[in-house]
Write a structure and sequence with these properties.
single chain, alpha/beta, eight-stranded mixed β-sheet, 28 helices, binds (2S,3S)-3-hydroxy-2-methylbutanoyl-COA
Length: about 700
């Protein structure tokens, strides 16, 4: 916010006082804004010239909620409830004029007003649960009085906003203003300026519970869907308090809110909120680095990844040409894509006309030369260096002069592909995570000679296809898979000690992962990591023994678990354990507590994270966390491996690793220099900034 410019400007338009809230980028209610708003409200209420007051936001929207950056410390008065009290005691009507987002404290302030009008594209919601807290300015009490318990609960426990049409249908707003909001809101204010009594939400009757076990059912259903999260249950508790008289309910809400704000889960989710946004700022990349326009994309390879990448591009409105080696493979890829969209229509997630629009953007081809017009070409063929090298060699002379050439390789040496293309400055890695239509993160890999605009364009492309794009350096496995390898290595050590397959997976699911490392391997296909190990002379005798026994995971019906035909449910299989015991030459079992198993695995990953920071492959610790949370299912309410390390304390992690290095005689387990240094200095990864 430009210093000295008022956060709230008041304009008198006829008999209406217009209070313009201006705290870019999203009018978050920082302490300064709350204080300025209180002063402006009190002045307008006292001003005889003002028969009505309109609150309106400058910039992108109304108010995106409380200033989340303030939650790491005790927040100063006035808080939003104080401003709401001022409005509810006002003898004059106050109208919230909403465009863009009215979220969290922003919607709560609007519900403190007597009327709410919006533009047709406004979004209204209580997303607090997504950052691990409950609403804390009356939203859990006023929203149910306006929209009923069911809708209020859906909005508050789910956290997703509703659109203006739905808000009008549920009585959350009074009117949708077509055309100029400011003028429309002032006209509305003039119309209601003499209407009495003033409709205060707090005066509405407490909502009647739909049926006796409404809340019990909501708790059970939420516990099933989000068993590890505290905030959704706390939100249900707070909304249930709406059955009480309003002031009792508001007091109860404050108690519940206070119990969530400083919780570990809330701190982790807040951290991730900003980590996600920080990832978009690539250190060393000037903000004005030119970004090329990407309107058409060529995808080479229509396998699982290639067809999913094509779908992501078509979903984002891009024209896509999918190249396969022959007609059979091409037809198969296009059929996979059509089946994806048919499924989405069947599940009601997509309108059929929208399906046709997206399919119309997709074209099949069988020649690389058919990609000569593409702005960006993404190679997504099998992980074979020779094949990828051949493709990049051919692409060099074919692609148009300013095209970008990207590889979806997960491991291979990008610089070799870049050299093969004869235009290394235009080459980058775009590493998607399977399933690419679901996983929200994408590693944008900077090769040795990638031009700044190539990386800037890769990041913009990521945002365009609604991915969280994170720039990483080029190395074997980039960031995500480097930690994955260390996780696999520690699992191999645990298996060798006699820890059971199920015990390892249980430890990581209890920690919060959706599936354990062994079951995750079965999903991905054990032959893929087996081949990657062989290509690097990496010898994991126990993991190899499973594959050597023909157990490739889900796709072969057995891996670390067995799978009934057509089922994806991992079933314990003594045969898998027998193969491992045979390979380690013992069937004695070691029983380690789950948290010890989890800490061993996480420590190895955290150590690798520290190396990646030291090497400059990862620019900041939070980038590693964003990649693992949105690419590998690391539980978001734990913040990511590096955030978790700070929570546990780096000295403890370093000590653990030193002990393991001695025990296993493996220098690879020694604390990485950065970890050892930060631990010794009593610092955290969060403190660490690249000098
Ligand atoms: N506080 C502080 N900074 C915020 C912020 C907030 N609430 N919302 C956004 N920012 C920053 C963000 O970090 C980024 O900064 C810039 O604004 C643009 O955001 C009392 C307790 C509104 C949908 O959870 O969902 O109210 O990176 O990149 O994609 O009950 O921001 O540029 O430096 O996300 O257009 C509840 C959070 C708070 C909404 C816009 N509110 N915000 O998305 O832009 S708790 C939220 C969003 C609360 C009350 C409780 C999105 C957006 P930078 P952006 P965008």
């Amino acid at each position: 916010m430009e210093a000295g410019l008022p956060l709230v400007k008041t304009e008198q338009i006829g008999k209406v006082a217009l209070l313009i809230i201006d705290n870019p980028p999203v009018n978050a209610t920082s302490h300064a804004l709350r204080a300025a708003l209180k002063a402006a409200l009190e002045a307008a209420i006292a001003d005889p010239a003002a028969a009505a007051i309109v609150l309106i936001g400058a910039g992108r929207g109304f108010i995106a909620g409380a200033d989340i950056t303030e939650f790491e410390r005790k927040r100063e008065e006035p808080l939003n409830p104080a401003n709401i009290a001022v409005m509810e005691q006002s003898p004059k009507p106050i109208i919230a004029a909403i465009h863009g987002h009215a979220l969290g404290g922003g919607l709560e302030l609007a519900m403190g007003c007597h009327y709410r009008v919006t533009t047709s594209d406004a979004k209204l919601g209580q997303p607090e649960v997504k950052i691990g807290i409950t609403p804390g300015a009356g939203g859990t009490q006023r929203l149910p009085r306006l929209v009923g318990l069911k809708m209020a609960l859906d909005m508050i426990v789910g956290g997703d906003p509703i659109d203006a049409k739905t808000a009008l249908a549920y009585g959350l707003i009074n009117e949708i203003i077509e055309g100029d909001l400011r003028a429309g809101a002032i006209a509305f204010a003039e119309r209601v300026s003499d209407k009495r009594p003033l409709p205060r939400v707090r005066d509405l009757p407490a909502p009647a519970p739909p049926d006796a076990d409404f809340f019990a059912a909501a708790r059970a259903e939420t516990a099933k869907r989000k068993p590890e999260l505290n905030a959704p249950q706390a939100c249900i508790d707070a909304v249930e308090a709406a059955l009480l008289p309003i002031d009792d309910g508001l007091r109860r809400e404050q108690e519940i809110f206070g119990g969530t704000v400083f919780s570990e889960q809330a701190r982790a989710l807040r951290y991730l909120f900003f980590a996600e946004r920080d990832a978009a700022k690539v250190p060393g990349l000037a903000a004005d680095t030119p970004i090329k326009t990407i309107a058409s994309v060529g995808v080479i390879g229509g396998g699982t990844m290639g067809s999913a990448i094509a779908i992501c591009c078509a979903d984002a409105g891009l024209s896509v040409t999918l190249v396969e080696a022959d007609k059979l493979a091409l037809d198969r890829a296009l059929a996979t894509i059509r089946a994806h969209y048919d499924g989405a229509v069947k599940r009601g997630r997509l309108q059929s006309d929208e399906r046709e629009k997206r399919l119309a953007r997709l074209h099949g081809a069988m020649l690389l030369s058919d990609l000569r017009g593409a702005d960006l070409i993404i190679e997504a063929v099998t992980e074979e260096l020779a094949l990828k090298g051949k493709i990049f060699t051919e692409l060099g002379p074919i692609a148009k002069p300013d095209a970008l050439l990207a590889s979806n390789t997960s491991y291979l040496d990008l610089d070799l592909l870049a050299e093969a293309s004869q235009r290394p400055e235009a080459v980058l890695g775009l590493h998607f995570f399977a399933p690419a239509t679901v996983m929200r993160v994408m590693e944008v890999v900077r090769a040795a000679k990638s031009a700044p605009s190539t990386i800037a364009t890769g990041m913009a492309f990521g945002r365009k296809i609604r991915k969280i794009a994170v720039t990483v350096g080029a190395c074997d496995g980039f960031v995500g898979n480097r930690l994955l390898t260390q996780r696999g290595r520690e699992v191999e050590r645990l298996l060798a000690e006699g820890v059971a397959i199920e015990a390892i997976d249980r430890a990581m699911t209890e920690f919060g992962f959706p599936v354990g490392p062994c079951a995750a391997g079965d999903i991905a296909g054990l032959d893929i990591s087996y081949r990657a190990r062989k290509q690097r002379d990496r010898f994991w005798p126990l993991a190899d023994a499973i594959v050597d026994a023909g157990r490739l995971g889900q796709k072969s019906g057995a891996g670390y678990y067995r799978y009934e035909s057509g089922s994806r449910t991992p079933l314990p299989d003594p045969e898998a354990q027998r193969i491992i015991d045979a390979a380690r030459g013992s069937d004695t079992r070691a029983n380690l507590p789950s948290d010890a198993i989890a800490l061993r695995i996480l420590s190895a990953m955290i150590n690798e994270g520290a190396r990646l920071l030291d090497e400059g492959i990862a620019a900041r610790a939070s980038d590693i966390d964003v990649i693992w949370v949105y690419g590998y299912g690391f539980p978001a309410h734990r913040g990511g491996p590096m955030f978790y390390a700070d929570l546990v304390g780096l000295p403890k992690i370093a000590e653990r690793l030193s002990a393991a290095a001695t025990r296993f005689g493996d220098d690879g387990l020694k604390p990485a220099p950065l970890l050892a240094r930060l631990a010794a200095e009593g610092k955290t990864f969060h403190d660490w900034k690249r000098s």
